[in-house]
Amino acid sequence: MIKAIKRVLTSMLTLAVLIGGDESRIGTSGGNQVLVPVGARGIAMSGSDRVFSSGLESVYWNPAGLARSAAPSALASSMDLFNDVGVSYFGAASNFGDLGALGVTVKSIDMGDIPVTTVEDMDGTGGGTFRPTLTTMGLTYANAFSDRANFGVTGKVVYESIPRASASALAFDIGVQYTGFAGMEGLGLALSLNNIGTDMHYSGSGLTGSATGDNGITDFYNKEASYDKLPSTYNMSLSYSVAGAIVGMTFTSHNFSYDELNFGAEYTLMDMIYLRAGMTSPMLEEGSLNDGETLFNLNFGAGLTYSLYGVNMVVDYTMRNQGDFFNSSNVLSLGLLF
Question: With a threshold of 0.85, does the pTM exceed it?
Answer without folding.
Answer: yes
